């Protein structure tokens, strides 16, 4: 198996690396990555459970069309992780159902 | 046609929606022909999905390593920046257009940013270059984490420099799979197989078209060589009919297909993997166009595309379209069409060489679309409990019940009876599958808003 990484392939190095908090663990990220990209980079493929079946979901279409990657970022639910930039010290939490369970709807 | 391009309230000669190959080529060509242009794009950087590339902060010194024909983009991006500096082009990134209103030579484009409303953009002509998204056909296990769109994997790799796994099966149909497999392998993933449900055999019926497109053949040979080098096994006329795993995908079952895409009994075998990148070609993104009433047709690949004149006018006066909106055909065709549209919008004759290039590439796209068009038998790999609509979690059994017992004959009726297609993505993921199960063939999607919009933004619209 190749040891090559995507970063090797395109050369260069990120200007800034940092971590954000995801469900109680630190996820390494680079400036310019989305939340979904950083999670994939850390081997995390799922960060949401569905409203009816409670099934795990993560990024699917990767371009903001499918809404499978919805996540709660800094307290705001239903953000598309494939579009939201990762921020240093950000707080990302897995989202259950609608993300509005506190409203009891 | 003179406007003050520096005044955002002024009416531009042309508003272009989408800064992918078609929109970008159109914007710089129109500017070169003397028009003032406003270019709106949902992305942070120009290039669209095809020329999607990392944020500068990621420090990539060789972004072209993940691209084919990068020079075609880089040259036009430099032109865009020059026209931006001179004020001929106003380029608005991270602005998603959700509605276009007006008629004739007076159009208003309503858009949103991540924060809220973008100021309305006014223009005398509109060019829709909104591209496409991936066509998905469901199968048991396709909602498991680790099963991702083939284009999705490519997009995440190109922009975020990440992979969905270390051992990635690539499956579905269409030549995009070859590019995705080559990229994933070059970036360090092991790709045990590329599983193509269609075939490359049907291309042989179009020898003349193939010979007139040597660049396309060379591109195919390039990917073929890369796959050989990375020991990627091609499986033609095969499909992934199930993904296995509990928390994430651990293996897939691959089966041979007959001519109609029915799995052949006794041919199933398992391939271990930790990710599956899957897609069955692309679907033109027509939300803005169909909301405007633009006429549509069924393209060779079975998707719905816009009806366009040779000058790329839609059926609505004052509205043009280019690239995948007129039928999926790839970046080179999109670049040519963007330039053609710019000429006709500027009232100029289309250079003959440009028109010939478009005709040649369109013929290739039609041959390609026919070779990879899904056969009717694919629904045979669905089980009753297989989710068809990912957002509303509607299983195939409920869709079939709507069709067989409740009498639905089209996707819209299935939606009303089952909620399939009524969720967040508004049928973008399940639409082709629901239409196939309903037996009514593909119909143009009708979405009054092209993307989610806050109620407050709608309330601010003028009453007319």
UniProtKB/TrEMBL annotation, chain A:
InterPro entries associated with the record: 2Fe-2S-bd_N, 2Fe-2S_ferredoxin-like_sf
Superkingdom of source: Bacteria
SUPFAM superfamilies xref list: 2Fe-2S ferredoxin-like
Keyword annotations: Oxidoreductase
Pfam families the UniProt entry points to: Fer2_4 (PF13510)
Protein's name in the database: (2Fe-2S)-binding protein
Organism phylogeny: Bacteria, Bacillati, Actinomycetota, Actinomycetes, Kitasatosporales
């Amino acid at each position: 198996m190749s040891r090559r990484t995507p970063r090797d392939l395109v050369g260069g190095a990120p200007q800034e690396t940092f971590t954000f908090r995801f469900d109680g663990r630190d996820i390494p990220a680079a400036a310019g990555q989305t939340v979904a990209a950083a999670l994939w980079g850390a081997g995390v493929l799922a960060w949401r459970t569905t409203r009816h079946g409670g099934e795990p979901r993560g990024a699917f279409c990767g371009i903001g069309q499918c809404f499978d990657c919805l996540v709660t970022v800094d307290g705001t639910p239903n953000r598309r992780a494939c579009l939201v930039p990762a921020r240093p010290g950000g707080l990302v939490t897995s989202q259950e159902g609608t993300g509005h369970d506190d409203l009891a709807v | 046609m003179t406007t003050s391009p520096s005044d955002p309230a002024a009416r531009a000669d042309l508003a272009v929606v989408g800064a992918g190959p078609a929109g970008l080529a159109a914007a710089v060509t129109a500017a070169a022909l003397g028009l003032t242009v406003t270019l709106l794009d949902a992305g942070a950087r120009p290039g669209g999905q095809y020329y999607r590339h990392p944020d500068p902060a990621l420090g990539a010194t060789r972004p072209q390593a993940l691209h084919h024909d990068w020079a075609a983009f880089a040259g036009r991006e430099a032109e865009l920046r020059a026209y931006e500096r001179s004020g001929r082009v106003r380029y608005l990134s991270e602005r998603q257009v959700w509605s276009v209103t007006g008629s004739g030579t007076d159009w208003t484009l309503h858009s949103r940013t991540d924060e809220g409303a973008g100021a309305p953009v006014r223009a005398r002509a509109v060019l829709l270059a909104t591209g496409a998204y991936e066509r998905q056909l469901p199968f048991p296990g396709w909602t498991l984490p680790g099963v991702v769109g083939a284009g999705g994997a490519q997009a995440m790799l190109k922009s975020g420099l990440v992979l969905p796994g270390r051992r990635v099966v690539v499956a579905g149909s269409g030549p995009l799979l070859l590019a995705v497999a080559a990229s994933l392998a070059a970036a360090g993933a092991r790709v045990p197989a590329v599983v193509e449900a269609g075939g490359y055999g049907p291309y042989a019926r179009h020898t003349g078209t193939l010979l007139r497109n040597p660049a396309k053949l060379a591109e195919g040979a390039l990917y073929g060589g890369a796959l050989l080098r990375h020991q990627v096994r091609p499986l033609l006329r095969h499909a992934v009919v199930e993904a296995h795993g509990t928390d994430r995908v651990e293996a897939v079952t691959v089966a041979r297909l007959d001519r109609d895409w029915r799995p052949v009994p006794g041919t199933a075998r398992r391939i271990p993997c930790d990710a599956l990148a899957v897609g069955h070609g692309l679907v033109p993104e027509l939300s803005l166009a169909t909301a405007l009433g633009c006429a549509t047709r069924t393209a060779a690949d079975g998707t719905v595309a816009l009806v366009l004149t040779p000058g790329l006018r839609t059926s609505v006066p004052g509205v043009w379209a280019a690239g995948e909106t007129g039928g999926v055909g790839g970046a080179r065709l999109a670049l040519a069409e963007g330039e053609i549209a710019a000429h006709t919008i500027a009232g100029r004759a289309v250079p003959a060489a440009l028109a010939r290039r478009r005709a040649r590439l369109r013929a290739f796209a039609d041959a390609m679309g026919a070779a990879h068009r899904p056969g009717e038998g694919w629904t045979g790999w669905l089980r009753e409990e297989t989710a068809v609509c990912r957002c509303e979690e509607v299983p195939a059994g409920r869709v079939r019940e709507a069709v067989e017992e409740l009498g639905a004959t089209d996707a819209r009726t299935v939606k009303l009876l089952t909620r399939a297609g009524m969720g967040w993505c508004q049928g973008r993921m399940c639409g082709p599958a629901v239409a196939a199960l309903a037996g009514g063939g593909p119909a143009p999607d009708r979405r009054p808003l092209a993307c989610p919009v806050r109620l407050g933004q709608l309330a601010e619209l003028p009453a007319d």
